Amino acid sequence: MSETEIPAKIRLAIYDMDKTVTRRPTYTPFLIHAARTRKPWRLLLLPFVIVTILLYAARIIDRGRLKELNHSLLVGPALSPADASALAESFAAETLATNILPQAQTRVLADKGDGYRMVLATASYEFYARAIARTLGFDDVIGTMTRTDTAGALLARIDAQNCYGTAKLEMVQAWLVRQGLAREDCHIRFYSDHVSDAPCLNWADEAFATNPHPPLVALAAQRGWQVFNWR
């Protein structure tokens, strides 16, 4: 669809983050960065991380529980607001220096220049994704939220849903409601590398399979979605 054919609607460009905007995933590097910079002795717990991955592979735990366990092992059970902010900023600086695809950054700026409201929708934790998104020019972030205690400390527990698969679409739709935006009043682009985002890609007006893995390549061919390879 060309720009001249797009009705006068609110324009939203929604991007997945890991391996869509970044070269590599960010969650495990974030955990290692946290352990290395805060309490290096936690790196000794990496063998237990491998155990949790095996439990996930065996379908004994789900993806959300996997994230909670590894967060507890490498970051700790609680993180003060000040420590969480400092950690997010230091990890964002590391990510921006070494892990951003230049073509993704160019596309983000192009969409922004065309009047799109830029949204990052990621399974990664919202508190560190927001620090990355801000520098890249995104306006809003939808991500996995962490629970907090009465003092505001971030806990190693997911608040509500892990922002992945159908849950990501539900969270994007809930975000629209909170923003006072009706779906029919919006023209939405969605970018992702992974077939788990098929619900969001199907829901969007324009779907872009971006750096797609083979299952998404196949699905994009079936659905006629445009493919971008930014690697």
Give the total of beta strands.
8
Structural class: alpha/beta
Low-confidence stretches: none
Distance between the termini: 24 Å
CATH architecture: 3-Layer(aba) Sandwich
- Tell me the strand percentage band: 15-25%
**Share of helix among residues?**
40-55%
**Largest sheet data:** 8 strands, mixed
* Count of helix runs: 9
Order of helices and strands: EHHHEHHEHEEHEHEHE
Assigned CATH class: Alpha Beta
Backbone shape: globular
Structural account:
The protein has 231 residues and is an alpha/beta fold. It has a single domain (3-228), classed as Rossmann fold (3-Layer(aba) Sandwich), CATH 3.40.50. 46% of the residues lie in helices and 20% in strands. The chain has an 8-stranded mixed beta sheet, sandwiched between helices. The mean pLDDT is 95.
Topology at a glance:
Layout: E1 10-15, H1 27-38, H2 46-57, H3 63-74, E2 78-79, H4 81-98, H5 102-113, E3 117-125, H6 126-136, E4 140-148, E5 154-159, H7 166-178, E6 186-192, H8 198-203, E7 206-210, H9 214-223, E8 226-228
Parallel strand pairs: 1-3, 1-6, 3-4, 6-7, 7-8
Antiparallel strand pairs: 2-5, 4-5
Helix pairs in contact: 2-3, 4-6
